[in-house]
Amino acid sequence: MNHHLTETLKLSDIFSLKSLLLKIIGVVAATIAIKGFMIPNHFLDGGLLGISILMHEFYHIDVWIPLLLLNIPFVILGYKKIGKNFAVHALLSLVLLGIALNILPIPTVTKDHFLVAAFGGVFVGLGIGFVIRGGGVIDGLEVIAEFTNKKFGLSTTEIIMAINTSIFLIIAFFLGLEKAMYSILTFFTALKVSDYVVDGFEKLISLTIISPNDALIKDLIVNTFNKPITVYKGERGNLPENYAVKHDCDIIVTVVTRLEVHKIKQAIAQADPKAFMFVQNIKEVKGGVISRNTGH
Q1: Number of compact structural domains in the chain
Q2: Which pTM value belongs to this model?
Q3: Are residues 110 and 227 in the same domain?
Q4: How far apart are CA 192 and CA 108, in angstroms?
Q5: What pLDDT score was predicted for residue 124?
Q6: DSSP 13
């Protein structure tokens, strides 16, 4: 559900303790979701996991069998398009999940439909997120989404949403609209939880500010919030009603965490109510003061 598949790890890291531990945590969380919440209550998720549980519902075969078989083509595609290390990580994750689904005796946690959808999604998200952190994957749709993204220009999110919409329509047709709605809730819960696990609660955000009082804004960000800034020389004005009116200005850019951005935006708005601000999510930051301060 999160898009970090293009990263490759050294071969020596494949069986490292940290990588293996993250995979095991993820596999256990996914097993709790599947055996403790979803299968006993006939609930489904999106992706290949949803298809596998759907096949379990129709044909009563162990869910790990279709999950493994459905993922194999995507592991092969990942080997060709991403690399050998990724394919080994992915295959190891799937084998561990198959073992866990067979040997872990997980009891039914609850029969409440809302709790099943919410907490089933939480544990699925934890499972997917920790496995990705360990370098693997337990849902091959991420691989085809990355490949199709590059080939057809569609975003990974658009591709996954299109595939999952088809799955939810099938669920609605065969199992009823209510089950489909709960499955959508499970999917979105898993999506957000896996994002947090992979990116962290301190996901970095780029904050850009254009203000006539740029010296004040620079001082506030650097000296009050202790954040480094980058300054671009720009031009403000060019409004529809006064197109010819323009002024040179400094465009101030800083990188902050998700937890900090609201506080800094409030402080800037109080210092200069006319300041123009916009934020952008950042996939990765390397080097410089930001990396040393945040660990990214």
Answers
A1: 2
A2: 0.69
A3: no
A4: 24
A5: 93
A6: G
Q: What is the 3-state secondary structure (H, E, C) of 164-188?
A: HHHHHHHHHHHHCHHHHHHHHHHHH
- Residue 124 burial class via C-beta count within 10 angstroms: exposed 0-12, middle 13-18, buried 19 and up: buried
Q: How far apart are CA 243 and CA 46, in angstroms?
A: 49
Output the CA torsion sign for 175, 180, 181, 184: positive
CATH label of the domain that carries residue 273 = 3.30.70.120
Boundary of a domain, candidates 199, 230, 245 = 199
Residue 3 confidence (pLDDT): 44
Distance CA 170, CA 278 (A): 40
Q: What amino acid is encoded at 136 in this protein?
A: G
237: region left, alpha or beta (phi > 0 left; psi from -120 to 50 alpha): left
Assigned domain for 273 exists: yes
What parts of the chain have a pLDDT lower than 50?
A: 1-11, 291-296
